[in-house]
Please model this.
Amino acid sequence: MSRALGTDGRWFGLGCGALLGLALSLAGCSGSRPSPGPHFKIGTPYEVDGQWYYPKFVTSYEATGIASWYGDAYDGRETANGEIYDVGALTAAHPTLQLPSLVQVTNLENGRSLVLRVNDRGPFVKNRLIDLSQAAARELGFEDRGLAVVHVQYLGLARLDDKPIRPGEQRTYSALACRLSEAEQLTC
Model:
């Protein structure tokens, strides 16, 4: 059949191999490495503005503190775990939780609560616990004020194939109950 198309299978294979090699070599010259796409991430300790953060795998986490939100300046950029930030999705950034995680965030000032997908690192401002997407801040009722006192509870690891949810969608996030063995193998 390859002869009917006017190609010899051997030459066609070599041609595809050469094109693939060329494409890979050009990609290597771009100055940035290709993104692995959405992936599970714990991360290593890191420093931002003199403050050290120590990411770790947890199965239980609860904290109360100040939430802020981030918006248009980051919209469309890659998050810390390779997803694309969507200012209109129900997501969040946390400095140390494994990514992607699911957390329940409750605004203690008005009682509103949401389940959010944590897929980024931040906030990197002193005394801030969590950074929410603009849509999440709007849904929790503090978009205009910019800050709120919240309670954050870890629910589980998020599925990599679960897309971020936008307000009004008729679906929910699915949490995975996972553990990390001493050999650092993830079991869900």
